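Reviewers of the previous submission asked for a worked example of the structure-prediction workflow described in the proposal, so we include one complete record here. The input consisted solely of the amino acid sequence. No template or homolog information was supplied to the procedure at any stage.
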Amino acid sequence: MKTAAVLIPELHHPPVIDDVVFTGPGDNEVAIDIKASGLCHTDISWIDNARETPCILGHEGAGIISAVGKNVRHLQEGDHVAINWRVHCGQCQHCRSGRGAWCENALDTEEPRVFWQDAPIHTILSAGTFCKRCIVPAGGAVPIRKDMPFDKAALLGCGVATGIGAALYTAQIHPGDDVVIIGAGGVGMNIIQGARLQGAGTIIIIDLHEEKLTQAKKFGATDVICASTCNTVDAVLACTNGRGAEHVFDVTGLPSIMENALQMLGRGGQLTCVGVPNRGDTMTFEPRKLISMQQTICGCTYGDIHPGHDLQTFAQWYMQGRIELDSLVTKTINLEELLPEFTRKTAPHEFRTVVTFE
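From that input alone, the workflow returned the following structure tokens.
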């Protein structure tokens, strides 16, 4: 099959649209006709941080199974699926001990399945959803209910999973905990939702834009702080009766913001770093204070979710009205309109741009 894809030919090269060619899936793989794919910050940062090139971009997607390998039993043609871009190997020490979120050998296809200019081409995070087709290990396709709209289902496998998972699994928020989220983008809004689902006490959102702070209240924020008008540390302490928060989440990926976030923590508090910094970035902190205040700095990838179970659960929660996704999709485009989005400055009211292939 030949079809158009958005790809980067080499590191630091702007994305282009060109035809790629697919073979069929291997014995333990599936082919998916992609119906929708969200544009995530990771796709944009891959231009300068890609592990391998050339590479097809896009990893937050949903579609319909079009072919299954002969060893695949839990999926069949016609199934609606969300993309899981981190397929646990099941064999490493972490997987065998029940901690698959820390898998050391996430799976890719057994052989290259997509080619560009007569040579194999990589796919970002073993997905490559900015294309009408992708081929993934069978665990990379998680079946979801067929009545869920694809443009919302596409968000499940990254923005929703990372945000809600960060609250539920990485931080393990307890009922009544005070929570701070720095960055009111798509992931930040889902951390708010995760904190709400966990019964957090005060849920504080910090951002530079009043428009996003207003939206944050619809997702469950109890307090909002505009970073352009006040000292954010003082504002957080005021919201928490001077104690500081049990949990602070950084979604910006900026070391200076992470360092500031540490000052917002109370005794026993945890800073969960969700936003992705540039490679080589560093941050500083006072280890004596960290020890005496019994605090923790924790990294978070993919919300430490259990993809095969959680993506289905998140789909159910959306259809039951327990989580809000509709207002996260603020722009819908086709593939040919995607290239300018990599350099366009996002408006304050925007969260996710979604490419549809309907």
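The mean pLDDT is 96. We consider this example representative of the routine output the project will generate in years two and three.
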